[in-house]
Design brief:
Elements (H helix, E strand, L loop, with lengths): L1 H33 L6 H28 L10 H14 L3 H15 L19 H13 L10 H36 L16
Length: about 200
């Protein structure tokens, strides 16, 4: 009986301790996470370098996949080989929209900083924010049709050329240009000595 009482007392004491610590910590924790973090020089510098690194990896990853589609120019290529490569590209792109949206979210935070660069001036309304450009790229890649089930080699070659254009000459080039603009912002506006260029332009 005494053992049962001791056990019950221990459980009640533990619950009280947990409850007390919960109520003691939670308000401070919640308040901390409600505080709005402002885009200061140091934070914008770190975030911009971080996203440029992510863009660099994404850029080269997509280009490596697209580069394999150059097999379409090879006279020894078969329909089965090119179809398999198109399927590989389709599978390889599955996770890319999520990464692009993550990059866009990080960039959006930085866009509140004065003189942060804008996107492409290709509409009558003027340039959009860079974060919007990346959200658009995510949507484009997510909805990009890749018809790897074609049976005839000429049709597969044409499809491979289209995919190369859609990915390399459209999305990848946009990534490279916008990342370069953000690095120039670090140099010009934040006065940071960035002793490198992230992208080396590849020819496909």
């Amino acid at each position: 009986m005494n053992n049962r009482k001791l056990g019950l007392f221990a459980i009640v004491a533990l619950m009280l301790c947990v409850s007390a610590s919960t109520f003691a910590v939670t308000p401070e924790f919640a308040a901390l996470h409600r505080d709005k973090v402002l885009p200061t020089h140091d934070i914008v510098l770190k975030k911009t370098l971080f996203v440029c690194g992510q863009i660099n990896g994404l850029y080269h990853g997509i280009n490596d996949m697209v580069g394999a589609l150059q097999l379409a120019k090879n006279n020894n290529i078969t329909a089965e080989m090119l179809s398999a490569q198109l399927l590989a590209v389709k599978i390889g792109l599955i996770e890319k929209p999520a990464l692009l949206r993550h990059i866009a979210k990080e960039i959006k935070f930085c866009e509140a900083y004065p003189d942060f660069p804008l996107g492409f001036d290709d509409s009558p309304e003027g340039p959009e924010k860079i974060s919007i450009e990346f959200y658009k790229m995510a949507d484009h890649i997510e909805n990009l049709p890749i018809n790897y089930k074609l049976k005839e080699l000429p049709a597969l070659r044409k499809e491979a050329q289209r995919v190369v254009f859609e990915l390399f000459w459209t999305d990848s080039e946009k990534m490279r240009t916008l990342s370069s603009d953000m690095l120039n912002f670090l140099r010009r506006v934040l006065k940071e000595d960035i002793p490198f260029d992230i992208f080396g332009k590849l020819n496909h």
